[in-house]
Amino acid sequence: MITSSIIESAAFLRNYAITTLQQLDRSYPSISFGTHMVRGRTVKVVRLTTLSDNKRKTIEYSLSSPKGMRIQTTSQKILLIRKALETLQLETPSVNRAVLKGTPRRIASLGTQEVLPDSQDSAPKALTFSADEWMSLSEWKDTRIVNGYQHGNHVFRSKSELLIAQLLESLGLEYKYEPLITIGGKERRPDFAVFCPETMRFFFIEHLGLLSDTRYRMDAIAKMEQYDNAGIRDGIDIIYTTEFSQGSFDIDAAYGKIAGAILAQSKTV
Questions:
Q1: Is 0.70 topped by the overall pTM?
Q2: Does residue 110 carry a pLDDT above 70?
Q3: Within 13 Å, how many C-alpha atoms sit on residue 192's CB side?
Q4: What is the pLDDT of residues 149-201, one digit of tens each?
Q5: Nearest partner of 41 among 64, 69, 58, judged by Cα
Q6: How far apart are CA 214 and CA 208, in angstroms?
Q7: Helix (H), strand (E) counts: the chain
Q8: Count of CB atoms within 10 A of residue 66's CB?
Q9: Residue 202: CA atoms inside 13 Å, Cβ hemisphere, count?
Q10: 3-state secondary structure string, 63-103?
Q11: What are the residues whose beta carbons fall under 8 Å from the beta carbon of 203, sequence distance 6 or more?
């Protein structure tokens, strides 16, 4: 099935990202911070250690010097690279071979509710993301949408949401538009709930389409915090697609996030 190829492609891309980050990490010299006494006063310094001809060489710069400030910037890049590398390595699953072969499992044959692994114990009991729960989700169907984009049985609020729906259809993924859910005792309507037949579970998509507006951006951050506080994990249970101005929506980036979510979910297959 098409979604099987998504998982396989995402696994390849993630392994490629890990290899690239490892190469970047190795290419940078060793950087450390400390202090040095200069004429009776303590000066904060950054130390750059390189290895040449099996000989270790350390050069020291004041943090306030132009060279020292550039090295600090480099050290921040290294930290980000290592953090990204650690995250990728921790989240990279051993993908189930049946999934890669595209072996489907029918929803109708599911006699019991999906059992989640221990890593999902922190998720709220009201959301298990199982096939049974997927079938119980109802769409809001807001009749107040004006100047919307008609497609099939749905009227989407924006062209970007329409493009997301078309992408999901092209990938063979079933979706529900603006499903009604309850988190933290409050009703929420994420833009999409997407069901993947290979993993037999679903995830949400929230499209943040006006991030160039300060008020909208702050509201979006608050919304993301609410999902996170409810145990809905970014990249597994929910993904966020974004655009900062009209026409800036990147459908390829959306595809990559969908692929990543399906890959992360495959750990539970």
A1: no
A2: no
A3: 32
A4: 888 889 999 899 999 999 999 888 899 999 999 887 888 999 999 998 878 88
A5: 64
A6: 12
A7: 7, 11
A8: 9
A9: 26
A10: CCCHHHHHHHHHHHHHHHHHHHHHHHHHHCCCCCHHHHCCC
A11: 129, 193, 194, 196, 236, 237, 238, 239, 261, 265
